[in-house]
Amino acid sequence: MTQVEQNTEVPSAIPVCGASGPAAGPCTGADEALTRVFTLLGKRWSGLVVAVLSYQPAYFSELRRAIPGISERMLSDRLTELAEAKLVLRQVDEGPPLRVRYELTEAGQALRPALDELRDWAATHLPQAPPPC
Question: Measured between alpha carbons, how far is 81 from 31 in angstroms, rounded to an integer?
């Protein structure tokens, strides 16, 4: 048996979908709550926007600089979606100049421990991406 095959064996105590015999078990669907979370935060950039705002409120331009590679349009779309989900609060500072500040709501701040756990998990289990050419 190769090393790869050794690592893919499933302990008999864990039910395997579609299996027969002692490891058989019913397949369960994806958890509804996790489906909702990943539908929102699984969109590209959404989790990073929440992560940046988890430290402190920020203006649009500050968010754009803090998240390299995000376009203004995409940032605007993600902020709108997060505001509609009641995770982000949008506040207009009357100018001049007119500025829009974003901060997490209580529900958005409640994501901070989960984001910290994901960061720790990634540091341990995901290899760093090679630097761009």
Answer: 22
Q: Which residues contact 23 (CB under 8 A, 6 or more apart)?
A: 10, 12, 14, 15, 16
Residues in the chain predicted with pLDDT less than 50, given as ranges, are 1-12
β-pair partners for 91: 101
| Closest among 95, 96, 104 to 63, alpha carbons compared | 104
CB atoms within 10 A of CB 114: 13
Give the helix/strand (H/E) hosting 25: strand 24-25
Decide the pairing of beta strands 24-25 and 16-17.
parallel
Q: Rounded to the nearest 5 degrees, what angle is found at the Cα of 97, between the Cα atoms of 93 and 100?
A: 35
Q: Residue 55: what pLDDT?
A: 94
Q: In whole numbers, what is the pLDDT of the chain averaged over residues? A: 85
> pTM of the full predicted structure?
0.74
